[in-house]
Design goal:
The structure is a homodimer of 128-residue chains. The first copy, chain A, has a 6-stranded mixed beta sheet. With 128 residues, chain A is α+β, with helices and mostly antiparallel strands. The first copy, chain A, is built from 3 helices and 7 strands.
């Protein structure tokens, strides 16, 4: 293994299993724990420095993009389920209806910490 | 902070600063340390379970997608530079020309560990 490009060996990454282009994650179905479809992944939000996925943006409702709403879900409340080929979240439709969401024209500023806190607090997820 | 959704408090995420939709990372310029443009981000490869960005796929050369080649770059060799609004890598054009790359029709299987090892070894980057 060469090490000539000035890269430190810290922070090794897991290669192989489960790797996929982010653009191909979009469209993946999201189910509740009863197996009902709640929506699908519209996009993911990543840290452009740390390279961690922070939110999956789930689209919920709507038809052909009309009236569609986007729910940012903290990444660590989603579990990938191989059998269903999609993500599972332990949420009810009622919980989603009360959750932070936005329409396309009101796209949040992901760099706004107050917004991130509001989302993570709703789902009881830690942050710093 | 409620914690009713069965989510553990482990693995807190950094919210706010630098967060962006993955789809909007695409198109970001990649420069060498002399400030020359090498290409742009075409997509990122993430772990669909661990939510870590593993590779930035840099497109290099080509014109309107014709003859374009894709270089998977291990995420941790890229540094985001606020001033240039893009990523910087310590690579020469010659190093890129010898690097693992593919044309669109030969899209790699990102779950193939041997391929990941080949890429990471080329750049001297750790993996497991």
């Amino acid at each position: 293994m060469s090490s000539t490009l000035g890269t430190s060996m810290q922070d090794p990454v897991q290669i192989g299993a489960d790797a996929i282009e982010a653009s191909r994650v979009n469209g993946t179905k999201v189910y509740n724990t009863d197996g009902d479809s709640l929506g699908h992944i519209h996009d993911v939000v990543i840290g452009k420095r740390d390279g961690h996925v922070k939110y999956a943006i789930m689209s919920f409702g709507g038809f052909l993009g009309i009236g569609e709403e986007y729910h940012p879900l903290p990444w660590n409340i989603l579990k990938y389920d191989e059998r269903q080929g999609g993500y599972v979240v332990g949420l009810t439709v009622e919980q989603l209806q009360g959750a932070p969401r936005y329409a396309e024209r009101d796209r949040p500023n992901w760099e706004d910490e107050a917004y991130g806190r509001r989302v993570n607090d709703y789902y009881g997820v830690g942050y710093y």
